[in-house]
Amino acid sequence: MTKQVEFYFDIVSPASYLAWTQMPKFAAQTGAEVLYRPFFLPGLFQTAGSASPITVPNKGRWLFQDLIAWAKRYGVPFRMNSKFPMSSLTAMRGLIAWQDKPEFMALGNGFYQAMWVDDRDISDGEVIADVVQAAGISPQDFTAAVQDPAIKQRVFDINEELAARGAFGAPTFFVGKKMFWGQDRLDFVAEALSEAG
Fold it and tell me: Would you state the CATH architecture of domain 4-196?
């Protein structure tokens, strides 16, 4: 049986972006299958009674410098979005709708590129349309999907499930019942996979 790690992420989370950039290499190094799990982070904050680290001014200032340091270590482009924070709800509904479809990775890459490299507003309709079309998805199909009541309900259900499992932020990883929070915990995720194997 293939080892698996669940990777819960939101486009609006810079630490999730850094984790996203590392997942292909992480999968190759550990031999594990990465199960990509999009979710809406602000909804989890509300459901789990949590909050973004940036709500603590000193921690927020420190966090931005820490993210820059991790991006440098990973060798990936990163700049703090000048429009941050913004709503990722439409993007995350779309990623949930396309989770099991071939365009999923291109869609995620496009939203992360727009958000954390190109300094674009992922809540803006034109930006969303650009990302969606570049991923090979019809904007009309995307719009219909993100307005689907079943997808809207799924966003809510995922957060209920996550909160019940003990999650409170992003990115969150699960190896079986073991939970890890933060892109800087990948070494511990790898250890858990090794123990599970």
Answer: 3-Layer(aba) Sandwich (3.40)
